[in-house]
């Protein structure tokens, strides 16, 4: 293709060979080392590509789409072309070679350059902090919950999963492009949050304060707040808990031992969101 077509009707078949060198290089973005070298990652499926085009068009490098997906998601392709993005019509075999989870459409997107300083300069009132959260599906689901609750940022700390991991990207369902997501050591993040006047709460079953009750009532969480959530298996360590202003537990009224990470994060973030809007 030598120029950008004006509309979906102008697209002609560009890539037919799934073993073409360019397609091999794009497919390699499924691996972390390739993503790190290129500063790019894959966004698979119509919802993720739609949100990338709508919310971060300057970061979208290329879009590959099959004829069937073009027919089903014409609006996504039309919006991409209107934004003067490169859209390539490809065979099913080519898109499948790039990603088996593409659902017929996949985008190559540049990694965000957001930093913790950038986040705090926006004076956020609600932030989610993930410390050593290693499961891609969990991390993506918490990002989606943070977005839904109106959080203004997510911070990944410690050995948390790579945010550009394809499973993380899919799990966010496009929320990855709705709010900044940055990495920082937990101690540095907490210190910066404190300097910005943000109260840091740790969500943990050992907490003396109970969410919605004594020590963590609505008035206590209505201030600018950052919630810290720990590893799926062991939660937060004693050193991590010590960094927080308050350790808060979610009351369990039934017989369940505990809540999983994504559910607990949703409960805490929505509690703050509701209190801040009261």
From TrEMBL:
It comes from the Bacteria. The keyword Cell wall biogenesis/degradation does not apply. CDD domains: SpoU-like_rRNA-MTase. Pfam families: MRM3-like_sub_bind, SpoU_methylase. InterPro entries: Alpha/beta_knot_MTases, MRM3-like_sub_bind, Ribosomal_eL30-like_sf, rRNA_Methyltransferase, SpoU_MeTrfase, SpoU_subst-bd, tRNA_m1G_MTases_N. GO terms for molecular function: RNA binding; RNA methyltransferase activity. Coiled coil: none annotated. Residues 42-115 form the RNA 2-O ribose methyltransferase substrate binding domain. GO terms for cellular component: cytoplasm. GO terms for biological process: methylation; RNA processing. SMART domains: SpoU_sub_bind. Keywords: Methyltransferase, Transferase. PANTHER family: RRNA METHYLTRANSFERASE 3 (PTHR43191), RRNA METHYLTRANSFERASE 3, MITOCHONDRIAL (PTHR43191:SF2). Belongs to the class IV-like SAM-binding methyltransferase superfamily. RNA methyltransferase TrmH family. This is RNA methyltransferase. It comes from Demequina activiva. The lineage of its organism: Bacteria, Bacillati, Actinomycetota, Actinomycetes, Micrococcales.
């Amino acid at each position: 293709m030598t120029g950008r077509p004006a509309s979906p009707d102008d697209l002609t078949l560009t890539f037919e060979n799934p073993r073409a060198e360019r397609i091999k290089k794009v497919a390699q973005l499924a691996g972390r080392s390739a993503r790190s070298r290129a500063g790019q990652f894959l966004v698979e499926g119509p919802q993720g590509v739609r949100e990338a085009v709508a919310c971060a068009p300057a970061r979208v490098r290329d879009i590959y789409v099959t004829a069937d997906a073009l027919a089903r998601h014409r609006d996504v392709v039309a919006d991409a072309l209107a934004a003067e993005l490169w859209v390539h019509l490809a065979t099913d075999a080519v898109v499948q070679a790039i990603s088996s989870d593409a659902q017929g459409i996949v985008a190559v997107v540049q990694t965000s350059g957001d930093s913790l300083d950038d986040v705090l300069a926006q004076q956020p009132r609600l932030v989610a902090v993930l410390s050593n959260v290693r499961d891609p599906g969990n991390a993506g689901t918490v990002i989606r919950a943070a977005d839904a609750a109106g959080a203004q940022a997510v911070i990944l700390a410690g050995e948390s999963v790579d945010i550009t991991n394809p499973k993380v990207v899919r799990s966010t369902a496009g929320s990855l492009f709705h709010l900044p997501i940055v990495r920082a050591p937990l101690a540095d993040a907490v210190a910066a949050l404190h300097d910005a006047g943000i109260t840091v709460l740790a969500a943990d079953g050992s907490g003396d304060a109970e969410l919605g009750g004594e020590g963590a009532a609505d008035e206590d969480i209505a201030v600018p707040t950052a919630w810290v959530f720990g590893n799926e298996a062991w939660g937060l360590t004693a050193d991590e808990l010590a960094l927080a202003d308050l350790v808060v537990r979610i009351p369990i009224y039934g017989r369940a031992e505990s809540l999983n990470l994504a559910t607990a994060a949703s409960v805490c973030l929505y509690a703050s969101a509701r209190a801040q809007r009261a």
